[in-house]
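Input:
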Amino acid sequence: MEKIKLKNDIVVSSVCLGAMNFGTSTDEKSSFAVLDAYVDAGGNFIDTSNNYAHWQGTGDESETLLGKWLKERKNRDKVVIATKVGFDRHGEGAGLKRGQIEFWIDESLRKLGTDYVDIYYAHSDDAQTPIEETVEAFDKLVKKGKVRMLGASNFDTWRFDRARAYAKTNGLAEYTIMQQRFSYLYEKSSCAPTYVFNEYVGRERLRYLKEENIPLVAYSCLCKGGYERPERLPQSCEKGERLEFLATLAAEKKMTKSALVISYLTNFHRTGETRVIPLFSSSTPEHFLETLSGADIKLTDEELLALKRA
Ligand SMILES: NC(=O)c1ccc[n+]([C@@H]2O[C@H](COP(=O)([O-])OP(=O)(O)OC[C@H]3O[C@@H](n4cnc5c(N)ncnc54)[C@H](OP(=O)(O)O)[C@@H]3O)[C@@H](O)[C@H]2O)c1
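Output:
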C-alpha cells in the first residue's frame, strides 16, 4: 500500500480502516482479525470516534477495543490513530465548546490507553459556539502534545475555511485534513445532506481542497456495502449508467465493484484533483482484504478518465 505524507510529517497508508462498529456489532475477535489483517497488508491509518458506536451501545466501545488491541500488539508508535469529538452520544457530548473538547480528549486518551492521538477531528460543526473558541481549544491540545494534527468532518466548506483563516491569522493550529462521505456513485449524484450537518462533496468542495492541498478522507466509501449488495445503495445515489460502467469494468478486470471503487479513489488525484484517502470497514478479514486489494491496482489513464466520465 502506498504511503502519503500529511502535514506535520505524519505518514499514512493510502487507505484508512474504519473502527466504528468494532466492539459493538463486530465482536472483539473479528475486530482484532480485521485490524491485524490491515496492518499485515501494510496499513497504519485507523479511524474511530469518542461516540462509536453509541447507537448500538454506550459509545465507548470502539476506542476501548482499540486501546486493548494497541496494548496487546504493543504497536502504538506504528499506527496513526484518528479520533473525533463533537457528535452526540445518548444526548451528551454534542458540540465544540472549550470544555467539551478538553473533557473528551482526555476520555479518548484514557480509552485508547495513549497520551496522544495523531489526528483529532471536529466530528460535526457547532454553530452555537464561536469558531474562535473551538479553534483556540483545539490549538491548546496541539500545544500540550495531546494531539498532533487537526481535521474536521461534516462541515460546510466556508465554515471550515473560516476556522482555518482564524487559526492562520492568530498563529494557531489549523484543520489540515477533511473527512466527508464520498464514493464513486456520490460524485455524480445529487446526494443531498441527510442530516443537519453537511456531508456533501461536490465539485466546489473538491476544487477548494485541491487549491488548499488538503486531503479528503472519504468515509462510507463502499456505500455501506451497497456495491456488492445493491439493496443497500442509498435512494439518492445515481444507479444508472455509472453503476453499469463500474460493473462492466470490474468484471473485465476481474475485481469486485468495491475493490474497483477503492482503486478509483486511491487514483483520484491523478487527474489533477485532491488526494482522496478511502475510509472503509468490514466485519471480516476476508471481505476487508478482498476490497483492500483495489488499493494496489494502478488504473491506466484511459480507465481512470472513462470512470470519471461515466
Ligand atoms: N465522519 C463521519 O461522520 C463518519 C460517518 C460514518 C462512518 N465514518 C467512518 O467510516 C468508516 C466506514 O463507514 P461505514 O462502515 O459506514 O461504511 P462502508 O465502509 O462504506 O461500508 C461497510 C460495509 O461494507 C461491507 N463490505 C465491505 N467489504 C465487502 C465485500 N467485499 N463484500 C460485501 N460487503 C462488503 C461491510 O459488510 P461486511 O461486514 O459483511 O463485510 C460493511 O457492512 C467507519 O468505520 C467510520 O470510521 C465516519
